[in-house]
Structure formats: structure tokens, C-alpha cells
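Would you kindly consider the sequence and fold I have copied below?
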Amino acid sequence: MAASLMFTSMAASSFRRNVKRWKLFADIMVDLGITLEIVAPSMSQKWFLPLLCLGTVCKALCGVAAGACGGALQMYWANTLLGSEEGISEIAAKNGAQRTVMGGLGLVLAALVAKFLGNASIQTAIALYLTLTIVHLVTNYKALKLISLDWLNGWRLHKVVEEFLACVDKNDGKVNEESIIVSKPSDASKEEPLLFLPEWRSMKTKYPIRMGLSFNDFSRLSYQPASSLQYHIMKKESSKDDYLLTVGGIEGRRTKNRCILISYFSNSSSSEKAKAYLHACLVRRALVSSHTTCNKEEHNGSENDIIQEVEDNAKRKLAQLWPIFKRCVTDAGWKLDKTECSTEGYELFIE
């Protein structure tokens, strides 16, 4: 119970962003928990209770993750099979019936297997158990690959934005909607990673993007003075953007480790967060292409001028590309109003 409560407090906000990853995590945890419970009696007395408790913890984590992801997956099947989210009650009822039928068949098969293994060697039992466990994980992995969710999380948003900008680059910066091709949900689902492993693209990124910063961190890391940032916030009503974006660093003005900072206002929509990410990617590409002086030993005024010019150019380009990006992504089948990005959890609120 303690493990499920701690796990919920740590991961609750990320379940919808990574539904398929957490669902596979739940499948792995339940198999790991069962394995530990089977192994525990064969271990020495001092290891019996720790292994049994660890197995119970794994199954508790499975229950939390599977329960959290179940609603989103049932919503997907309601839209796919019945054409509307209103059919989620029917899908939930049929899912329960399916589990009941499969549970009954499982009991019959379990009795037959137990009878078959009555005089079998322990090696045969272990081999059969490992085989069935692998089959369970592989079939769940392949099943999740068939589910094509139509909202953009961090991985899907990055993929769609990179494809869009690559098409723009092929046309030498000229925007031609007919030549822009982005992945559809069904295509992206086949490539989306389902394990929580470090991604090579995030490790080799020169200017990482930090989203959802508090104003204190945003102003501390930004190259702009806090008074200028406060002025922009107070003038927000005249701006079309519901977020702040600037170039910053880990140690503020004198750092060589630059990153792109985004702070959202409390009324920022999901679509606006996708726009902010596209804006950040344009700034990052401009920084890379301009060979900004962030790698110099000493910080000087010219670096601020270069960064300011980069931000101004990226903002002008965003005004040109965002409407086209929005149409192309929507035509591909994505719903921008359901975008779920990983953030640091802060929003700016003006009283």
C-alpha cells in the first residue's frame, strides 16, 4: 500500500503522456512480481520475506499503472470501434466480460498444465514458465504497437516537428504545403518507443528545451534582466502568445551550457504548448546555424545581441510557419488540443 501511494504521487501526472509505456511497464511488473513470489520459497529463510514483499510491491505498481492507463485505452477503443467517446461505458463492460471469459479459460488451462507437470522435471516447468512469460510480454508489446493515439506527447511532438522542419529545409525555406509530409498517428505508433530508456536524441541535443519553469528559475537563467521579463508579462495582453520563451543557461549569464527556457501562463492551452515547442525548435536551429558565441571563455555584450537577433528571427519565422504546421498536423489526424508535454510543473498567473 505504501509503494502504491508513493508511486502514484511520483508518476500520476505522467500517465496520460506515456500511456503505452506505462501499460507495458505494468505488464512487466506483474510478471516480475509473480516470478519473485515463485522464487522466494526456494531461497534461504533470510531472503524469503524480502523477495515476497518485493514481488507484492511490483504487483502493486502494476495495479496503479494499469488502472491509470485503462481509461485512456478504453477511450481509444470507444473512438475506434464505436466512433465516439460516449461508447466508453460499453467498451468498459465488454472489457470486463472479456477478462471474465479469459480468466475462466485460464483456470481450465492451469488445471491441465498442472496435471501435465505432475511428474515433469523442474527444468521443464521453468522452461514452460519462461516461455509463457516471454509470450505474454511480446504479445502485449505488439498489441501496443497497433494502438495509434491521436494526441501529441513529447516523443510524437518532437517527431512531427522535426519532419515538418525537414520538409521546409528541403524547399530552401519556402513554405509549400503540398510538399510537407508528417507522420500520421498510425505511422508514429509503429516507431514510438515503449520502454523507459534514455533516448539518444536527448543526450546529443546541444540546446535542450526546458518547459514549464517557474518565473524565479526563468528569470535567474535568462540572459534578460528580471525587470524586462516582468515588463513582457505585464504586456501579455497585447501579445498573441500565452508563454514566455528565451535562451538561458544553468548558471545564468556566464554559463557556456545554454538551453531554451519556456514558461507557460495559466491560461495557456494544449495547442499553445505545441506552438511553444515549435518556437523553441526554431530558436535552437537558429542558434546552431549562427554558431553563437556561447562557447567563448568570457561572456560579452555581443552574445546578447546575437541571441536577441536569433529570437527575433525565430519569432518572425514562427508567425509564418505555425498556421501551416497547424493545418498539416490536423490533416494528418493529430489533435493539437489534446497535446500533453512533459513540463516542470509551473505556470505564471497574473493577479
User: Anything to note?
Assistant: The chain is about 65% helix and 5% strand. The chain has two domains: 2-146, 154-348. The radius of gyration is 25 Å. Residues 292-301 have pLDDT under 50 and may be disordered.
